[in-house]
Structure to design on (150 residues):
Protein backbone atom coordinates (compact mmCIF):
# COMPACT_ATOMS: atom_id res chain seq x y z
CA UNK A 1 0.00 0.00 0.00
CA UNK A 2 1.49 3.39 -0.94
CA UNK A 3 2.37 5.74 1.88
CA UNK A 4 1.70 9.45 1.79
CA UNK A 5 2.49 12.31 4.11
CA UNK A 6 -1.11 13.07 5.12
CA UNK A 7 -1.93 12.67 8.79
CA UNK A 8 -4.87 10.35 9.34
CA UNK A 9 -4.07 9.28 12.89
CA UNK A 10 -4.41 11.10 16.18
CA UNK A 11 -0.76 10.83 17.18
CA UNK A 12 0.76 14.24 17.86
CA UNK A 13 3.74 15.37 15.82
CA UNK A 14 5.55 16.54 18.97
CA UNK A 15 6.26 14.83 22.31
CA UNK A 16 7.53 15.92 25.72
CA UNK A 17 11.05 15.82 24.22
CA UNK A 18 10.02 18.73 21.99
CA UNK A 19 10.15 21.11 24.97
CA UNK A 20 13.32 22.38 26.62
CA UNK A 21 12.61 23.61 30.18
CA UNK A 22 15.37 26.04 31.03
CA UNK A 23 14.24 26.92 34.56
CA UNK A 24 11.39 26.17 36.96
CA UNK A 25 10.59 28.30 40.03
CA UNK A 26 7.75 27.80 42.52
CA UNK A 27 6.18 31.24 42.96
CA UNK A 28 3.22 30.22 45.14
CA UNK A 29 2.35 27.17 47.22
CA UNK A 30 -0.97 27.00 49.04
CA UNK A 31 -4.18 25.15 48.26
CA UNK A 32 -2.81 25.18 44.70
CA UNK A 33 0.72 25.66 43.36
CA UNK A 34 1.97 28.12 40.76
CA UNK A 35 5.33 27.70 39.04
CA UNK A 36 7.12 30.03 36.62
CA UNK A 37 8.80 28.31 33.71
CA UNK A 38 11.36 29.55 31.21
CA UNK A 39 11.23 27.29 28.19
CA UNK A 40 11.45 26.90 24.47
CA UNK A 41 9.66 24.44 22.20
CA UNK A 42 9.89 23.00 18.72
CA UNK A 43 8.03 24.80 15.95
CA UNK A 44 5.86 23.33 13.19
CA UNK A 45 7.96 25.18 10.60
CA UNK A 46 11.10 23.60 12.07
CA UNK A 47 13.64 24.73 14.64
CA UNK A 48 12.99 26.05 18.12
CA UNK A 49 11.01 28.98 19.51
CA UNK A 50 12.66 31.82 21.38
CA UNK A 51 12.78 31.43 25.16
CA UNK A 52 9.44 32.28 26.74
CA UNK A 53 8.28 32.65 30.32
CA UNK A 54 4.96 31.16 31.43
CA UNK A 55 3.20 30.60 34.74
CA UNK A 56 1.74 27.14 35.26
CA UNK A 57 -1.11 26.43 37.68
CA UNK A 58 -0.78 23.01 39.32
CA UNK A 59 -3.50 21.35 41.28
CA UNK A 60 -3.30 17.59 40.83
CA UNK A 61 -5.51 15.09 39.08
CA UNK A 62 -9.28 15.08 39.37
CA UNK A 63 -12.11 12.75 38.42
CA UNK A 64 -15.34 14.02 36.89
CA UNK A 65 -18.52 11.96 36.80
CA UNK A 66 -21.28 12.70 34.31
CA UNK A 67 -24.41 11.46 36.07
CA UNK A 68 -26.82 9.70 33.70
CA UNK A 69 -30.25 8.26 34.41
CA UNK A 70 -30.93 5.66 31.70
CA UNK A 71 -34.56 5.20 32.77
CA UNK A 72 -35.38 8.88 32.19
CA UNK A 73 -32.61 9.39 29.59
CA UNK A 74 -31.41 12.47 31.52
CA UNK A 75 -28.06 13.91 32.57
CA UNK A 76 -27.63 15.49 36.00
CA UNK A 77 -25.29 18.29 37.08
CA UNK A 78 -24.45 19.71 40.48
CA UNK A 79 -24.35 23.37 41.48
CA UNK A 80 -21.37 24.48 43.53
CA UNK A 81 -19.66 27.65 44.74
CA UNK A 82 -16.42 28.33 42.81
CA UNK A 83 -13.98 31.08 43.79
CA UNK A 84 -12.79 31.37 40.19
CA UNK A 85 -16.28 32.48 39.14
CA UNK A 86 -16.54 35.40 41.63
CA UNK A 87 -16.55 37.92 38.77
CA UNK A 88 -19.50 36.34 36.93
CA UNK A 89 -22.60 38.55 36.79
CA UNK A 90 -24.70 35.47 37.66
CA UNK A 91 -22.58 34.86 40.76
CA UNK A 92 -20.00 32.24 41.71
CA UNK A 93 -22.31 29.20 41.73
CA UNK A 94 -21.67 26.96 38.74
CA UNK A 95 -23.44 23.98 37.19
CA UNK A 96 -20.92 21.23 36.61
CA UNK A 97 -20.32 17.51 36.57
CA UNK A 98 -19.64 15.83 39.90
CA UNK A 99 -15.88 16.07 40.40
CA UNK A 100 -13.18 15.70 43.01
CA UNK A 101 -9.46 15.62 43.56
CA UNK A 102 -7.57 12.33 43.67
CA UNK A 103 -6.07 11.87 47.13
CA UNK A 104 -2.89 9.87 47.70
CA UNK A 105 -3.60 6.13 47.53
CA UNK A 106 -7.09 6.52 46.03
CA UNK A 107 -8.16 4.80 42.83
CA UNK A 108 -10.06 6.79 40.21
CA UNK A 109 -13.13 4.65 40.88
CA UNK A 110 -12.92 5.35 44.63
CA UNK A 111 -12.80 9.09 43.94
CA UNK A 112 -15.76 8.84 41.56
CA UNK A 113 -17.91 6.98 44.08
CA UNK A 114 -16.89 9.27 46.98
CA UNK A 115 -17.66 12.44 45.05
CA UNK A 116 -20.98 11.18 43.67
CA UNK A 117 -22.12 10.39 47.22
CA UNK A 118 -20.81 13.72 48.66
CA UNK A 119 -22.15 15.97 45.93
CA UNK A 120 -25.38 14.26 44.88
CA UNK A 121 -26.33 11.81 47.62
CA UNK A 122 -26.44 9.04 45.01
CA UNK A 123 -24.52 5.79 44.84
CA UNK A 124 -23.28 4.19 41.64
CA UNK A 125 -22.49 0.62 40.69
CA UNK A 126 -20.60 0.18 37.43
CA UNK A 127 -18.53 3.06 36.05
CA UNK A 128 -17.62 3.61 32.41
CA UNK A 129 -14.51 5.56 31.36
CA UNK A 130 -15.29 8.28 28.81
CA UNK A 131 -12.15 10.34 28.24
CA UNK A 132 -9.26 12.14 29.92
CA UNK A 133 -8.45 15.75 29.15
CA UNK A 134 -6.86 18.96 30.41
CA UNK A 135 -9.62 21.61 30.65
CA UNK A 136 -7.31 24.63 30.43
CA UNK A 137 -4.00 23.53 28.87
CA UNK A 138 -2.86 27.12 28.26
CA UNK A 139 -2.25 27.64 31.97
CA UNK A 140 -2.94 24.46 33.95
CA UNK A 141 -1.37 21.02 34.12
CA UNK A 142 -4.23 19.33 35.94
CA UNK A 143 -6.34 16.81 34.14
CA UNK A 144 -9.74 15.22 34.48
CA UNK A 145 -10.68 11.62 34.02
CA UNK A 146 -14.34 11.54 32.96
CA UNK A 147 -16.46 8.60 34.03
CA UNK A 148 -20.16 7.87 33.64
CA UNK A 149 -22.18 5.43 35.75
CA UNK A 150 -23.17 2.51 33.58
Amino acid sequence: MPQDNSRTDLNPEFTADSVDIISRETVFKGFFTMVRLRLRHRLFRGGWSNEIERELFQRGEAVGVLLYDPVRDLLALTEQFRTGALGRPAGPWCLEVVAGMVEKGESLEDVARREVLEESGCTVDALHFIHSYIPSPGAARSGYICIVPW
